[in-house]
Design goal:
This protein is α+β, with helices and mostly antiparallel strands. It has three helices and nine strands, in the order ααβββββββββα. It folds into two domains: 35 residues, no CATH class; 82 residues, no CATH class. The strands form three sheets. It has a five-stranded antiparallel β-sheet, with no helix packed on it. It has a two-stranded antiparallel sheet with strand order 1-2. Strands 6-9 form a two-stranded antiparallel ribbon. Helix 1 packs across helix 2. The protein is elongated. The termini are far apart.
Length: 153
């Protein structure tokens, strides 16, 4: 929760413009306490509803960090075994190139963020790890096709 001044700095426009959007009820979750606005943050920014008329806004096109690697667990593969009786890997890493890599163990160098979002999932996952660093794979890596060809029903 932030004030109008802090929210305007995060969005990159004036407090007056933000107050105008607040008056139009276009800032999701914002409410007044006395004569002050309290604005919730979603992923570090206030969430502004789009308007149906006029040009598309350019103020929300902030520079983003480098593309993220997403790491999650494929729960559909839990307990599945291959033809040799070994469990198939369930850790999925979607890299910056968009390719999925499956493995048994991943080391994440540097900082990372654990995300849980039940409403907006990422590739079917409700929780995942985001990192801008390149993960280090321990052991053999597989593609989705290789993992699915190994699974014995």
């Amino acid at each position: 929760m932030v004030s109008t001044g802090e929210a305007a700095k995060l969005l990159g426009f004036s407090e007056r413009r933000l107050r105008y959007l607040l008056a139009q009820n276009r800032v999701r979750g914002a409410f007044k306490v006395g004569r002050f606005w309290v604005i919730p943050l979603v992923d570090g920014l206030p969430e502004i509803r789009e308007c149906k008329r006029g040009p598309k806004p350019t103020w929300n096109q902030l520079k983003r960090k480098a593309a993220m690697n997403h790491i999650h667990i494929n729960s559909r593969l839990f307990g599945k075994k291959d033809g040799d009786g070994k469990y198939v890997p369930v850790i999925t890493v979607k890299g910056k190139g968009g390719k999925n890599i499956y493995c048994d163990r991943v080391v994440i160098p540097g900082s990372c963020t654990v995300v849980y979002n039940y409403d907006n999932d990422y590739a079917g996952a409700k929780s995942w790890i985001e990192t801008s660093e390149e993960p280090i794979f321990m052991g053999k890596t597989y593609t989705y096709a290789e993992v699915m060809s190994q699974v014995v029903n």
